[in-house]
Amino acid sequence: MRKSSDIFRHKLAELIANTNSNPTRFAREAGFYPAQVRNWLDGENIPGLDALDQIARFFGVPAASLISEGPIPEVITKEPTDDEILARITTALKAAKQSEHTSINEEEKELLRVFSALDKDERARHLGLMRITADPLSRDKAETGEKSKKSG
């Protein structure tokens, strides 16, 4: 029987790879220090219960599946809700405030500071605008709809 640390590190590496991410990006998005994640992946230690639960919630899998033998249950890929995105942003902001050694740059920190100062409705509105800006197809639809309204 393998040790829990071996099981965990292999499963964490698998989950990170399956999400087309990397350890540093995962650490930043999930609210951990990159060094913590490297230690876990190197098998030097395993996270505590709170961190294990946070990792499980991040990937949408049962916490027990991260440290027990057997396959990880199928992860249902879904678009994160606005509340989930806001929670990730809040976690990233807290991590940025706690350490000068974060993996986000000053521009990203400023974006997080400004975003966190908005009320929930404003956050949702700005999040929608960012999605439109980031997705060319949505932007094209929005521009087309806007042009047809002006010509109508």
Strand fraction: under 5%
Q: Please count the helical segments.
A: 8
Succession of helices and strands:
HHHHHHHH
First and last CA, distance = 70 Å
What is the gist of this entry?
With 152 residues, this protein is mostly helical. Helix 2 crosses helix 3 and helix 5 packs across helix 6.
Structure description:
Helices cover 67% and strands 0% of the residues. The protein is mainly α and 152 residues long. The protein has two domains: 4-66, Orthogonal Bundle (434 Repressor (Amino-terminal Domain)); 82-151, no CATH class. The termini are far apart. The relative contact order is 0.10.
Summarize the topology.
Blueprint (H helix, E strand, L loop, with lengths): L3 H15 L4 H8 L3 H8 L7 H11 L22 H17 L7 H12 L2 H15 L1 H16 L1
Helix pairs in contact: 2-3, 5-6, 7-8
